[in-house]
Design brief:
Helix 6 packs parallel to helix 7. 45% of the residues are buried. The strands form 4 sheets. Strands 1, 2, 3, 4, 5, 6, 7 and 8 form an 8-stranded mixed sheet that branches. Strands 13-12-11-14-17-19-18 form a 7-stranded mixed sheet, sandwiched between helices. The chain has a two-stranded antiparallel ribbon with strand order 9-10. The radius of gyration is 22 Å and the shape is elongated. The protein folds into 2 domains: 144 residues, Vaccinia Virus protein VP39 (Rossmann fold, 3-Layer(aba) Sandwich), CATH 3.40.50; 174 residues, 3-Layer(aba) Sandwich (Rossmann fold), CATH 3.40.50. The chain has 10 helices and 19 strands. Helices cover 29% and strands 29% of the residues.
């Protein structure tokens, strides 16, 4: 099995697991859990794709944290505020007992400094451009961080929480696509990778729309969308948009597909979104999407659709319209 920074720290005795009790794991998505007692782990997983992967490996996975645990294990996420919220939630359920693992590129040094100022932390074990340390910190000491996790209204007037994509303001690509959508989108529309609902709200302003299905892998983002779109026409699906199989086909699909997994650019992900859109559209169905200029989407669009055109954009983004999907590959 692959050694990890955490497994090496455990083996060297720099940090130690409790002998009994559950271990609540935050930020596990993409992590290798070598050296941990699998039968005692409770993975708090917001992302449906990671959740399904871990479940297939036999781990216990749930969206919400348990009421209590013997330890809170936090793998530091990219967002500083999101990390603070994880520490606060882990401390609240584990009587302040934490182990933290993170990379320098994800701000582990800043987190280490802040937690040392609020609790009793061990020396850090440094390895592979990151750190592992244990910390004993009360929930009361992190109460202000817990409040940050409650979320609030962003610059676009939508409710969001830390950790969801573009939580502070609407993504520029989504802004452009929302303005370019035609008046008539048909009766049945799907928003793939809907996030917290910015594009979907634009779709719901079209009188032709009778049903809008929002498909989103992040449970937190989907919960925000439900709050932002109190419209009986909206239906919400916590699902992998590249594998989602609806019961009927759609008149229109709109999307601003992701192209990163963590910090790594993965253009194939957007291509899979295009494949999925073609599969769920009616024979005369239409796709409206936005993408960064450099992303190689035109070839698969022409492969899966009979009609493809660029309908706008700017130096950073391109707006693409495709129609009449080909037969399913």
């Amino acid at each position: 099995m692959m050694d990890t920074r955490l497994s090496l720290a455990l083996e060297a005795g720099h940090v130690a697991l409790p002998e009994v009790g559950d271990i609540a794991v935050f930020g596990a998505s993409g992590q290798v859990l070598t050296g941990l007692p699998a039968e005692r782990l409770v993975l708090i997983c917001d992302d449906v794709i990671a959740a399904e992967s871990y479940k297939a490996q036999g781990y216990h996975v749930q969206v919400e944290p348990p009421e209590s645990a013997a330890l809170g294990l936090v793998f530091v996420p990219r967002g500083r505020i999101e990390g603070r919220v994880m520490f606060a939630r882990a401390a609240a359920l584990a009587a302040g007992k934490l182990i933290v693992d993170g990379a320098k590129t994800d701000g582990i040094d800043s987190h280490f400094k802040e937690l040392r100022a609020r609790g009793d932390c061990t020396a850090a074990y440094s390895k592979a451009h990151g750190k592992v340390f244990a910390c004993d910190v009360t929930a009361e000491a992190l109460a202000d961080w817990a409040e940050q996790g409650e979320g609030g209204e962003n610059e676009a007037g939508f409710f969001t929480v830390p950790g969801v994509f573009s939580s502070v303001k609407a993504d520029e690509g989504s802004l452009l696509l929302a303005e370019a959508l035609p008046d008539n989108l048909g009766k049945h529309v799907a928003d793939l990778g809907a996030g917290w609902g910015y594009l979907s709200r634009a779709v719901l302003t079209r009188e032709s729309v009778e049903e809008l299905h929002l498909v989103e892998a992040s449970s937190a983002a989907l919960s925000c969308a439900k709050r932002n779109l109190p419209d009986v026409r909206a239906q919400f699906h916590w699902a992998d948009a590249t594998r989602w199989e609806p019961k009927f086909n759609f008149d229109t699909v709109v999307m601003n597909p992701p192209f990163h997994v963590g910090r790594k650019g993965v253009p194939e992900l957007g291509q899979q979104f295009i494949d999925s859109a073609a599969n769920i559209l009616k024979g005369m169905g239409k796709l409206y999407m936005v993408a960064n200029r450099h992303l190689p989407y035109e070839d698969i669009l022409r492969e899966r659709f009979k009609f493809v055109e660029e309908i706008g954009g700017n130096t950073r983004f391109k707006l693409l319209h495709a129609a009449k999907p080909s037969r399913k590959r």
